[in-house]
Design goal:
Elements (H helix, E strand, L loop, with lengths): L1 H5 L2 H5 L5 H12 L6 H7 L2 H14 L8 E5 L5 E5 L2 H19 L19 E2 L4 E2 L3 E2 L9 E2 L1
Antiparallel strand pairs: 1-2, 3-4, 5-6
Helix pairs in contact: 3-5, 3-6
């Protein structure tokens, strides 16, 4: 099964990354990170930054940047490591190439990082019905959603 999963991987990843693909990954990446400090700084001269990123990737000079570490306390205390915005664009490039290889192998109850899935699509597998959404569980956090 694993050999089937990776058949043709070398061909799909070989060659140069198209500049259009870098721009597409950028637009996908900024959808939910538009107001972060890193994305705003990147966006000041995004065309030049994207061309520089594209050149770094294709020349083999791309290096992963520094992550930001912080602690969140809700719903449980945990440490978060957030990639630099430039690296997040590369993440989107990678997933756009690899997602098709893995999507067919996921079980139907896997929701994380999948197109058309995620916590908003979780359903009751025992009864086959959609789980109800409860909004504003905590009034101080308006985007809180619990299933």
């Amino acid at each position: 099964m694993q050999e089937d999963l990776f058949d043709g991987l070398h061909e799909s990843l070989s060659g140069r990354i198209a500049l259009d693909d870098v721009f597409e990954a950028y637009y996908e990446c900024r959808k939910h990170k538009r107001r972060t400090v890193n994305s705003l700084a990147f966006e000041l001269d995004f065309e030049r930054e994207l061309i520089r990123l594209w050149r770094d990737i294709n020349s083999g000079k791309y290096k992963v940047g520094r992550s930001i570490a912080f602690v969140v306390k809700y719903p449980v205390q945990r440490e978060i490591f957030a990639a630099d915005f430039r690296d997040r664009i590369v993440h989107h490039l990678v997933i756009s190439r690899l997602n098709g290889l893995f999507e067919k192998e996921f079980i139907c109850d896997s929701y994380s990082c999948r197109d058309g899935a995620g916590t908003e699509k979780v359903h009751c597998t025992a009864c086959g019905e959609s789980a109800p959404k409860l909004k504003n569980v905590r009034p101080d956090i308006p985007e809180t959603v619990i299933f």
